[in-house]
Design a protein that fits this description.
With 339 residues, this protein is of the alpha/beta class. The protein contains ten helices and 13 strands. Strands 3-2-1-7-8 form a five-stranded mixed β-sheet. Strands 11-10-9-12-13 form a five-stranded mixed β-sheet. A three-stranded antiparallel β-sheet has the order 4-6-5. The structure holds adenosine-5'-triphosphate (ATP) and magnesium ion. The site of adenosine-5'-triphosphate has 25 residues, from helix 6 and helix 7.
Length: 339
C-alpha cells in the first residue's frame, strides 16, 4: 500500500480577485473552498450598529466615524441601500492610490485563508499577467498581498492566474494549451507548453465592465445589473429578452470579441510563438464563464476570428469560478511534498 505523504494535506491556494477572494485547501480526498466578496460598504458609526454587527458576526472595520462592512455582507448592505458596494481592487490589482482600502482587503484575505496549519505553510496566491490594454504594473499589488500573508505566518509565493488555470484544468492535455480566466476586473490568458508558461497577459475588461456598460445603457446601478446577471442570465437565448437581458447579451459578445482580438494581436506581435504540432486545447474559467451558453458564444466568435494557432477542443472548466484557487493549491501541494 502506498504511504500518504507526510504533508499531503498541507499547502493552500488563494485566488485574490477583483470580485471575489477564494481559498482552496485539501481536506481528506476532497478540495474545499472558502469565498468572500472582495467588497466593502461604509455606514455611519453608532454604538448600536457596532453591537449589532458584532453579535451577527459580520466582518467590519471601525475607522474614523465610520463602520466598514466587509466581504459578502457588503453586497447585501449595498443592495438594501440601493447603492454600489466599493471595491478594494480594481482591474485585478490594489492600486497604490487606493491605500484606504488596504485594511479591507487584509481582513477579507484573513477571513478566507485562515491560519496556517503550521508556521511557514506554503500558500500560492494568484497575480494577473501584464496588462496589454492599460498601463500599470503589478509590483505594488504583489508585495502588499505577500506582506499580508507573511504577517499571518505563511510562506507566500505568487503564481500567474492563467497558469493556475492550466494547472487545474489541463492535466489530461499534458498541461499544454491555453488557460483563460474570465473574471470580474480582467481576463487572464496563459499559453502553456507542458506546464511551462510561454506567454501570459491580461486584458482589462471583464464582468465588471459588462455590468457598467449595461447599467449605463439601461440606467440602473451596476450592483443591480450584476445581481441579475449572476442569477438569471442565459446566453443560449436570443429572442424574447428583456431590455437588461438584451444589453447583457450584446456586451457579452462584445467582451469575447475584444478578448479574442487582443489575444490575436498579441500572438501576432510575439517572437515567442511556439510551433506546437497538434491542435491545442482552450479551457475557459472564471466567474464570467458561468452563464449557460457562454461556451457556444465563445466558439461562435472564435469561428469568425482568423486565429494564428490551430485550436482543438474548447471547453469550460467544471466549477469555473474555483479554477484559479485550485491551480494555486496544486502548485502549493507539489512544493509542500518536496519539503
Ligand atoms: N452565475 C454567474 N453568471 C454570470 N456572471 C457571474 C456569475 N457568478 C459570478 N459572475 C461574475 O464573475 C465575475 C467574477 O469572476 P471571478 O470570481 O472569476 O473574478 P475575480 O477573480 O474576482 O476577478 P479578476 O480575476 O478579474 O481579478 C464577476 O463579474 C461576477 O459578477
Ligand atoms: Mg480571477
Amino acid at each position: 500500500m502506498q504511504e500518504t505523504p507526510r504533508h499531503a494535506a498541507n499547502g493552500k491556494g488563494l485566488d485574490v480577485g477583483t470580485a471575489f477572494v477564494y481559498c482552496a485547501e485539501k481536506q481528506g480526498n476532497k478540495i474545499s473552498f472558502r469565498t468572500q466578496r472582495d467588497a466593502f460598504f461604509d455606514i455611519e458609526y453608532s454604538d448600536f450598529t457596532k453591537e449589532m454587527l458584532t453579535t451577527s458576526k459580520v466582518n467590519y472595520i471601525q475607522k474614523d466615524e465610520k463602520l466598514y462592512v466587509v466581504g459578502d455582507e457588503a453586497i447585501k448592505f449595498a443592495n438594501i441601500f440601493n447603492k454600489n458596494a466599493r471595491r478594494p481592487l480594481s482591474k485585478g490589482i490594489i492600486s497604490p492610490s487606493e491605500r484606504e482600502a488596504l485594511p479591507m482587503i487584509e481582513l477579507i484575505i484573513k477571513s478566507v485563508v485562515g491560519k496556517p496549519k503550521y508556521k511557514g505553510e506554503i500558500v500560492y496566491y494568484s497575480i494577473p499577467g501584464p496588462p496589454v490594454d492599460v498601463d500599470f504594473n503589478i509590483v505594488y499589488h504583489e508585495k502588499v498581498v505577500h506582506g499580508f500573508l507573511t504577517k499571518l505566518g505563511y510562506t507566500p509565493k505568487s503564481i500567474n492566474e492563467g497558469l493556475a488555470v492550466v494547472f487545474s484544468e489541463l492535466d489530461k492535455d499534458g498541461f499544454t494549451g491555453i488557460g483563460l480566466s474570465f473574471g470580474g476586473g480582467m481576463v487572464n490568458m496563459c499559453l502553456s507548453y507542458m506546464s511551462v508558461p510561454i506567454f501570459t497577459f491580461s486584458i482589462s475588461k471583464a464582468g465588471d465592465w459588462i455590468d457598467q456598460q449595461v447599467a449605463m445603457a439601461v440606467d440602473e446601478t451596476a450592483s443591480r445589473i450584476c445581481a441579475i446577471k449572476e442569477s438569471t442570465l442565459d446566453l443560449t437565448k436570443y429572442v424574447g429578452l428583456s431590455k437588461i437581458e438584451t444589453a447583457l447579451s450584446i456586451y457579452y459578445d462584445n467582451l469575447i470579441e475584444y478578448v479574442l482580438e487582443n489575444i490575436k494581436r498579441e500572438f501576432g506581435r510575439t517572437k515567442k510563438m511556439p510551433r506546437i504540432d497538434k491542435p491545442i486545447t482552450v479551457v475557459l474559467s472564471g466567474g464570467s464563464a458561468l452563464p449557460k451558453g457562454f461556451l457556444d458564444r465563445f466558439k461562435g466568435v472564435l469561428a469568425k476570428v482568423r486565429f494564428p494557432l490551430e485550436i482543438g477542443e474548447v471547453r469550460v472548466a467544471s466549477e469555473s469560478q474555483y479554477s484559479v484557487a485550485k491551480g494555486a493549491l496544486i502548485a502549493a501541494m507539489a512544493e509542500e511534498e518536496k519539503r
